[in-house]
Prior knowledge:
Mean pLDDT: 91
Distance between the termini: 44 Å
Radius of gyration: 15 Å
Helix content: 25-40%
Largest sheet: 8 strands, mixed
Shape: globular
Strand order of the largest sheet: 3-2-1-4-5-8-7-6
Number of strands: 8
Strand content: 25-35%
Amino acid sequence: MRIITGSARGAKLKAPKGQNTRPTADRIKESLFNILGAFVYDKNVLDMFSGTGNLALEALSRGASHATMVDMALESISIIKFNTAHTKLNDKATILKSDIFMAIKKFHQNKMKFDIIFCDPPYHKELCMKSLQILHEYPVLSDDGIIIMEHALEDILPNKYEEFSLLRRQKYGSTTQISIYENTKMVKSEE
């Protein structure tokens, strides 16, 4: 696992031992960031279930303005801190040890908004739908923001959920799928 391009290009990232954390594979990450292109530049990023910080650090390396990485596992937080220091992206990062759903409520109370939200929870625990629900209840996605969900192929996510509409769905191999949602709240209010 490494940073593919940008200011920290080639930096190798550490991952926890065992199967509890499943970092996004480099080929999936590269494809995802090719889809995102220049949209990442100068954006405020939230990495839910951050694990290693892999996705947020790639975004920072490619020019995102700031990334907040949230995980509740102490080992993951330690690895995120190591990876952030190793890539020399500390000054653009906030690392938070917290339950993500509690964190989102706090972000909302503090009127924080994110342009890109990465959501890559443990597979087969219905956390993608729970994440969409909490992001709807406590709107922290900016008006032109996107949510990127990485999930198991067999997890069926809706094409539309409240103000979130599916922009693109991409399959990777026999196990992984990425669903990208856009915030359509603004589109509705302008019509």
